[in-house]
Amino acid sequence: xxxxxxxxxxxxxxxxxxVRLGIIGLFFCFMGGTAAGESPDVVSNKDLTQLSLEELxxxxxxxxxxxxxxxxxxxxAIFVITQEDIRRSGVTSIxxxxxxxxxIQVARGSKNQWNISARGFNERFTNKLLVLIDxxxxxxxxxxxxxxxxxDTILEDIERIEVIRGPGGALWGVNAVNGVINxxxxxxxxxxxxxxxxxxxxxxxxxxxxxxxxxxSDFHYRxxxxxxNRDTSFNAxxxxxxxxxxxxxxxxxxxxxxxxxxxxxxxxxxxxGGQQSTVxxxxxxxxxxxxxxxxxxxxxxxxxxxxxHTWNSGSDMALQFFYDRYERDENTxxxxxxxxxxxxxxRFGFFSNQELLWGLEYRYWMDDLQNTPGTTVFPDSRSFNVxxxxxxxxxxxxxxxxxxxxxxxLSHNDFTGFEYQPSGRxxxxxxxxxxxxxxxxxxxxxxxxxxxxxxxxxxxxxxxxFPTVIRxxxxxxxxxxxxxxxxxxxxxxxxxxxxxxxxxxxxxNVRGTRVISLAPPTGTLExxxxxxxxxxxxxxxxQVFDWWLIRGAYTYINMTVEGPINTALNTTSRGSPHxxxxxxxxLSLPYKIEFDxxxxxxxxxPAPNIAGYIELDLRLGWKPWPNLDLSLVxxxxxxxxxxxxxxxxxxxxxxxxxxxxxxxxxTWSY
Amino acid sequence: MALGSIVWxxxxxxxxxxxxxxxxxxxxxxxxxxxxxxxxTFNRTNGxxxxxxIGNDPFGKILDSTLRDKKIHEHAIDIHRNPSKASLxxxxxxxxxxxxxxxxxxxxxxxxxxxxxxVGENDLFIxxxxxxxxxMDNQKVRFAINPDxxxxxxxxxxxxxxxxxxxxxx
Lengths: 670, 170
What we know:
The structure holds two protein chains of two kinds. By secondary structure, chain A is mainly beta. Chain A has two domains: 1-38; 70-669, Maltoporin, Chain A (Beta Barrel), CATH 2.40.170. Chain A contains seven helices and 34 strands. Chain A has a 22-stranded antiparallel beta barrel. Chain A has a five-stranded mixed beta sheet with strand order 1-6-7-4-5. In chain A, β14 and β15 form a beta hairpin. By secondary structure, chain B is of the alpha/beta class. Chain B has a single domain (11-167), classed as Rossmann fold (3-Layer(aba) Sandwich), CATH 3.40.50. Chain B is 31% helix and 24% strand. Chain B has eight helices and ten strands. Chain B has helices at 10-13, 18-33, 61-67, 85-88, 104-109, 123-127, 147-151, 159-164, and strands at residues 35-36, 49-54, 71-72, 75-81, 93-96, 117-120, 132-137, 140-145, 156-157, 166-167. In chain B, the strands form two sheets. An eight-stranded mixed beta sheet of chain B has the order 3-4-2-5-6-7-8-10. Chain B has a two-stranded antiparallel ribbon with strand order 1-9. In chain B, β5, α5 (104-109) and β6 form a beta-alpha-beta unit. The N and C termini of chain B lie far apart (47 Å). The chains are: A mainly beta, B alpha/beta. Chains A and B meet through α3, β6, β7, β13 and β14 of A and α1, α2, α3, β8 and α8 of B.
């Protein structure tokens, strides 16, 4: 054992002890880790081809191949949407691209509403999914979910979207219960030059522009701006869901030294979206309600900076800060939320077969709400702190063949105090082609602001003839999940990949309601449901010929709910189809012509009943030169319009139907 | 708590990866400089030198930046990642990643090229008929050559390269 590894060994024992002491100890452990990891630069920014073969042979290097985790080497249910997938699918928004991922439920509620969930519980205010864009958590603490209508960028600048189904709890945060969606944009050096992209069709018009540039060889930047105008879609009662949004931003990537990378990005957006909503006008029973069209306003922005450093020993770290502003103004909710987040992570190897990853995060947010007669949240302005730490050890028991990963996350939030989320995983790779993995994890979903202390008023509807009131609950607990997963992946040379995952999820303390008064009908939110889901997800690629690729995905999920289900006061969605499928065909024809088709099938949604559907998208593309991309796309071609989403359980807004659309697109870059 | 990415951590694909693969990229440049190809092989590639990678590219941009503006025997370098069967035939240097090593023989059945230098990452590669492979020795990058495999081809390897290599036969 060399001197260096001895240092790390003792460092480890300090770390181990610190972990028992908690987060403060962990921080101490980091301080030691930095000092021990430092060693002089051997290879700086030189042009190594100038060295002779003999010199090259004497250069000491660090092996990193292990850290570049390949898809086939992850012990989790992962699916990656590449830039090529986005381009060839003809989608015009991030949510649409997620339709190709097995295990993800996507239902379009209107031109500005999306219901997106992983492994069930699909509704507009889905709360068990974590979404990140370039490391920035896009989390709305009001309902513990994501406002998808404001998450957008130039689609050509997305490098890839990584989707994990299942709990990422040990690594990814307090609402990564059913999945994590990680959207990664291209580095600035990959978006040099000018790009303009235009979409024009019967349902939407989009213009995107980007200018990339550099200063020296180490500093690259891009500036971008995008505007979209989406047309009103269909609803028998009137839709009024047209939406417009403008956004503009920048990203810079700077490599001050070979082992350092600094990324800075910022963005501002502003837009509006129409909806038909029913809101209470008088604050006491039997309330007065008005139904009408409104144009809700959305705006916000963010600033993020991240520094990444690698030591010669192969260990690395990242330090990140972001600020995010969210503003929304609609008849039921008027909210401003400011989020500040500092995040640090550090990874190092020790002994010959272990790699430790640990991190600390502090998040502060404050909100400012304007209450309305129908939606009241107490107090109307509040701030929160969340402190989290995590620790994960990846142990290679048989090199390239068997690894075990154990980890836990410990966090503290202002609603429920300390929460722990451990997980254990294994990956067995008997040959290059086959891999088998399994995992057991615990994950929690912390309460949202609305669940904690609020008063929500709902108009009479099909199941209850009276207006009802639902109250928040200050004793509301975390929803808990114990998840069992197993998966198998086959990756044969060039022609076929096959990926199957099975899971069994046991949820406790899931949000339900308890009736506290029948006249007027009043309920309070309570953790009184037990939910079990069982499911299977399948993804397969077949490269039939070099010029024909078929990508398929299938999802099965079954959900059982135990506990007092008050149909009138139901706030837990079972809105996910039992079966859903996606089949894409990508044909690369002569003369640089592409012909792509995408068939999507969704079973009916059990409660509330939404009919199943089959839809087809077609894309004809032509790339006469590398810098010009022309396409003609038809989406949802099989029906004039079809319903995908159930009405929201929390806000009385009317979903609309998805219409057939046709558009032409031009992308030009130089 | 997710600064990096799940599949390709940007932390590791950037600064981290500079080390081993920056050195290997420079090695590839030298290998090509110490090997002579029949001039006819450049006719079908418009006079360019074609460097191809099969498998999950471990170099990333390092290879492009290392070889930027470089020439191999006065030929400009084109890099192709996972080329189609048709363009595979035109590769001068074929780099096969570790995972694809065992598939070299299957790969070779797909093309008929007697003047392609094959470079791999592990011993398995030589066993499957590869010509040059990298191996690690005490945190240093070394390479092994299988002269039998090269002698079957139209390639001419400089004696200097052979002298510095570990000579192996499968």
